[in-house]
UniProtKB/TrEMBL annotation:
Its main location: membrane. One of its GO terms (cellular component) is plasma membrane. Its cofactor is [4Fe-4S] cluster. This is NADH-quinone oxidoreductase subunit I. The gene is nuoI. Belongs to the complex I 23 kDa subunit family. GO terms for molecular function: 4 iron, 4 sulfur cluster binding; iron ion binding; NADH dehydrogenase (quinone) (non-electrogenic) activity; quinone binding.
C-alpha cells in the first residue's frame, strides 16, 4: 500500500466528473439491438401466406428448458394452413422458461422458427409471458388473404415444393389448373 493509492482511486472519479453524461431515454426511444441479436421467436410464413410450421414438434424435443409446446393438426381440403399434411394447431413458447439457446431454431426442418431481434420480453404478469401461435406468427404481407386457403401450386405437397412457394403469387395459370381438377 502506497501513500498515493487513495488518490489514484479518486483519479477515476475526478476524471469522469467533468465529462458530459450520456443518458438514453429508454422507454420513449428504445435503442436498436445489434443486427445479429437473437431475441423473441417468430413463426415464419411462405410468401403466399401459408405457415411454414408443419407441427413436427422437433423444436419442443430439442428445447432443454421444456419451454415449447406444439400440438400438430391435420390439414383438410376446406382448411389448409400449411402446404403439408399437418400444421401446428397449437404452438406456445413459455418465456419464463426459455433460455434463448437457439436449439429449437437448429432443430426446425422447415426453417419455420427463427429469432428476431425484439428484446423487450419483461412483464409483471406471468400469463403474458406465454406466447401463443397468434402472437408468434409473422404478419401477412399487404394484400394477402387470411389462411386457410387452398394450396396454390398443385394438388400435392410435392408439387408445392417443386414449383416453389415464391411462385405462388406469380403463377395464376398453375392455380387455375389445380382448381380445374
Amino acid at each position: 500500500m502506497g501513500m498515493f493509492d487513495p488518490l489514484k482511486g479518486f483519479g477515476v472519479t475526478f476524471g469522469t466528473m467533468f465529462k458530459k453524461v450520456v443518458t438514453e431515454e429508454y422507454p420513449e426511444a428504445g435503442a436498436p439491438a445489434a443486427p445479429r441479436y437473437h431475441g423473441r421467436h417468430q413463426l415464419n410464413r411462405h410468401p403466399d401466406g401459408l405457415e411454414k410450421c408443419v407441427g413436427c414438434e422437433l423444436c419442443a424435443w430439442a428445447c432443454p428448458a421444456d419451454a415449447i409446446f406444439v400440438e400438430g393438426g391435420n390439414n383438410t381440403e376446406d382448411a389448409r394452413y400449411s402446404p403439408g399434411e399437418r400444421y401446428g394447431a397449437d404452438y406456445q413458447i413459455n418465456y419464463l422458461r426459455c433460455i434463448g439457446c437457439g436449439l429449437c431454431i437448429e432443430a426446425c426442418p422447415t426453417r419455420s422458427l427463427t429469432m428476431i431481434n425484439f428484446y423487450e420480453l419483461a412483464d409483471d404478469n406471468r400469463e403474458d409471458l406465454i406466447y401463443t401461435k397468434e402472437q408468434l406468427l409473422a404478419p401477412l404481407l399487404p394484400g394477402m388473404e387470411q389462411p386457410p386457403h387452398p394450396m396454390r401450386l398443385g394438388e400435392t405437397e410435392q408439387d408445392y415444393y417443386v414449383n416453389g412457394p415464391e411462385l405462388a403469387v406469380a403463377a395464376p395459370d398453375v392455380q387455375a389448373r389445380s382448381e380445374a381438377k
